[in-house]
Write a structure and sequence with these properties.
The chain has 228 residues and is of the alpha/beta class. Helix content is 39%, strand content 22%. The protein has a single domain, classed as Rossmann fold (3-Layer(aba) Sandwich). The relative contact order is 0.15.
């Protein structure tokens, strides 16, 4: 009897479909103003929080789950985090390879995060749009517990993900505010903000991003939890 397909295999298949030309086009230079302003908004709040929480970012250890090709980690490095204090977990081999070339002194672990065992704890554990690519809510619970386990007591678990389903993309599932809070119900919520102008709107308005970025049009949640 054939073994069941794992959720990690399904995630790989979803990302493969997402890499087709019609999807990649959504992130092309044609939409650079949207990419720029949405990233700048996210990095502003990320940077402000980390600088307020940690006295010296050169001393903290950072782990990103689903690090992709390293854009977030390069931002953390610009803030002052030492590259050798960075650990990345990435499921997709091609992305992990790019990440290694961009950050050769960081530790890059290729594979399913649920199968990764780490003997150290981190000051900051972060995920960005990883959970919404996982359609199994049991895996959400398991991965959230892993993230909490990787954080030291008093450390921070960071979350950035979208809250609404996309009817045009069955490969993703929005995670509501209440569902996000329930994943980390035993930890202390220290920051919560809805950010990111809805991408379908942002791609149309482009340079008007900041003028139309009203709270009721924002689709993503940025949250930080302190491990109890």
């Amino acid at each position: 009897m054939e073994s069941a397909i794992s959720e990690s295999d399904l995630v790989k298949a979803r990302y493969k479909r997402r890499s087709k030309d019609d999807v990649v086009a959504l992130y092309s230079l044609r939409y650079w103003p949207f990419i720029h302003w949405s990233r700048a908004e996210r990095e502003y709040f990320l940077g402000a929080f980390l600088q307020s929480k940690f006295e010296d970012l050169r001393e903290i250890r950072v782990l990103e789950v689903g690090a992709g090709t390293g854009d977030n980690l390069i931002f953390f490095k610009r803030l002052g985090v030492l590259e050798e204090n960075i650990t990345a977990i990435e499921l997709l081999p091609d992305r992990a390879s790019v990440l290694r070339s961009r950050m050769p002194r960081a530790r890059v672990i290729e594979g399913d995060a649920l199968s990764v065992e780490l003997n150290e704890q981190f000051d900051f554990v972060y995920q960005s749009t990883v959970f919404t690519s996982i359609l199994d809510q049991k895996i959400h619970d398991q991965l959230a517990r892993k993230m909490v386990g990787w954080a030291r007591r008093g450390g921070i678990i960071g979350w950035y993900d979208f809250t609404f389903n996309n009817p045009k993309n069955p490969d993703v599932m929005g995670i509501s505010k209440s569902a996000t809070l329930s994943l980390f119900a035993n930890e202390k919520l220290v920051f919560l903000r809805r950010i990111t102008l809805a991408p379908p709107i942002a791609r149309r308005v482009q340079r008007l991003y900041n003028f139309l970025n009203f709270p009721f049009l924002r689709t993503h949640l940025l949250a930080f939890f302190e491990k109890s």
